[in-house]
Amino acid sequence: MAKKAKKDEVLVEEPVQVKEVKEPQTPKWEMKDRMYYLTKKGKPLTYVLQSKSTRKKPLLWWDEAKALNREMRYASNQRSVFVDEQDDNVILSHIIFEEGVLFVPKEQQALQKLLSLYHPKRGYVYKERDDIAEAKEELIGIETEMEALNTAVSLEVDQAEAILRVELGSAVDKMSSAEIKRDLYVFARKNPVLFLDLVKDENVILRNLAIKANEMGIIKLSQDQRSFAWGSNDRKLMEVPFDENPYSAFAVWLKTDEGVEVYKSIQKRVN
What we know:
- This protein is an alpha+beta fold.
- It has a three-stranded antiparallel β-sheet with strand order 6-1-7, with helices on one face.
- Among the domains are: 34-129, no CATH class; 204-271, Rec A Protein, domain 2 (2-Layer Sandwich).
- Strand 9 and strand 10 (236-239) form a beta hairpin.
- It has helices at 109-118, 131-154, 157-168, 177-190, 192-200, 203-215, 246-253, 257-270, and strands at residues 34-38, 46-49, 60-63, 68-71, 95-98, 101-104, 126-128, 219-221, 227-230, 236-239.
- Helix 2 (131-154) runs antiparallel to helix 4 (177-190) and helix 6 crosses helix 8 (257-270).
- It is built from eight helices and ten strands.
């Protein structure tokens, strides 16, 4: 039989703590001089960017708050680029890039906001110069190059040869150890990302071994590049899967149960 609760017993619920959720803050618009540049390599002497709407080419910006497309035009005497916020006394102006560059002082806020926030060609026809972002990008490039060069210094000659063969092919066979190291450093400096990827690729050394074995006649690749066989007796070793590099496929096959013994045999003969 359940006991009755005492009359003087009071149940008090513990307060539930509600965590305050902070809404993400949108970046503030900064009053400053701004520089814009065309993204294409072949920059014309002058380039005129669309500055108003026409029947064939409307210049619009989708306003989510108002749920409508707002027409824009650049007028040098107006504080806004939106037609619905401009008065009737409009002085239309052109937006002209000279030698691929356009400088807009901080006093021209309407033009800056059109270029930085609203224009539909922003990001692919032209971009705003961002010194901080460019510095970060350059820093990443320099650090990657340094990592590649430091890695190149630590590599043994055999691994260096294997990596360099991807770049130079069979020409590596005629190079001295000093030449291999020199060209490896040049490769690491010019293509640091590719170099580091090759260092991490465990199949590079196996692929190099396969190429050397084929050049020495230990194994041979068929004329149609569809199969490998022993060079001494033409006994087939493996079929190359369709649309794969034969040496890359052979390197993968050497790591299989069937290919391990072949790998040991080839390595002994090459050495």
